[in-house]
Amino acid sequence: MASTYPVHLVLVGPPGAGKGTQAAQLESQFGLKQISSGDLFRENLKNQTELGELARTYIDRGELVPDNVTIAMVEDRIQRPDCAKGVIFDGFPRTLEQASALDEMLALQDSEIQLAPALVVSDDVIIDRMTGRRVCRNCGAVYHMCYNPPKAEGVCDICGGELYQRSDDLPETVRNRLFVYYKQTSPLIGYYYAKGLLVRVNADQPIGAVSREMVAAVRTVIDK
Ligand code: ADP
Ligand code: AMP
């Protein structure tokens, strides 16, 4: 059954699965707002805020930033008017505690999660995607050296900004992030399955094929 706005989606999946890439496409197609907790932390790092300095110690080790800090940051962000039509949560929640906090904050707005697409992808693909990822320093657009290269090497197609490799995408940190995912985040699959919200998407495919599966899944809850 199709929902009326606001619509809230949670993208579940390991780091590097393609959540941000898919969220950006869904954002433009359905008019929802992509909220990436990782991007919010990186913005704070760039602006050298106290929150950014705290987050840095965890991000550099590939660990999760504590729940209370992360929940407060996201709760504050979704109050802004650009979230009124709904949100695609990307990289949040990452623990069961964050998931129930999210349910509570949406309930306060008389809203809820309508769908949790899970990007299912094999471990070797994840490593390859994370180590080849490049990000625009200016606008945050995401590229891949092989699978989604920019037109000119090292330069963002959208804003002309400089592309860089995230320090947590280096091979040592990538393995720990995957371990942290299996230990702390993968229980979310069961959490959303139990609520009848989980839909599995084969994320081992090229970007366009994953997008088609994603859009078909989202159309089951958005009449557009
Ligand atoms: P996440 O947000 O889940 O960490 P990203 O969207 O940043 O993942 O994608 C990780 C990397 O993999 C990026 O370099 C991106 O360009 C690339 N990528 C995303 N989806 C695919 C895909 N289906 N096939 C190949 N590369 C992909
Ligand atoms: P991402 O951009 O989603 O890959 O996140 C990069 C890093 O930011 C993660 O490895 C964590 O250190 C931190 N982070 C992002 N989102 C969360 C979250 N929901 N909970 C805790 N830490 C997070």
Q: N-to-C SSE series?
A: EHEHHHEHEHEEEHHEH
> What ligands does this structure carry?
adenosine-5'-diphosphate, adenosine monophosphate
Shape call: globular
Strand content: 5-15%
Q: What oligomeric state do the depicted chains represent?
A: single chain
How large, in whole angstroms, is the Cα Rg? 17 Å
Distance between the termini: 12 Å
CATH 2nd-level architecture: 3-Layer(aba) Sandwich
The beta-strand count equals 8
Biggest sheet character: 3 strands, parallel
Q: Helix count, per DSSP?
A: 9
Helix content: 40-55%
**CATH topology group:** Rossmann fold
Going by CATH, what is the homologous superfamily? P-loop containing nucleotide triphosphate hydrolases
Strand order of the largest sheet: 1-3-2
Low-pLDDT runs of 5+ residues are none
Structural class: alpha/beta
Level-1 CATH class name: Alpha Beta
Mean pLDDT across residues: 95
Topology at a glance:
Elements: E1 7-11, H1 19-30, E2 33-36, H2 37-46, H3 50-59, H4 67-77, E3 86-90, H5 96-107, E4 116-120, H6 123-131, E5 133-136, E6 142-144, E7 163-164, H7 171-185, H8 187-194, E8 198-202, H9 207-219
Parallel strand pairs: 1-3, 2-3, 4-8
Antiparallel strand pairs: 5-6, 5-7
Helix pairs in contact: 1-9, 2-3, 4-5, 6-7
The structure holds adenosine-5'-diphosphate (ADP) and adenosine monophosphate.
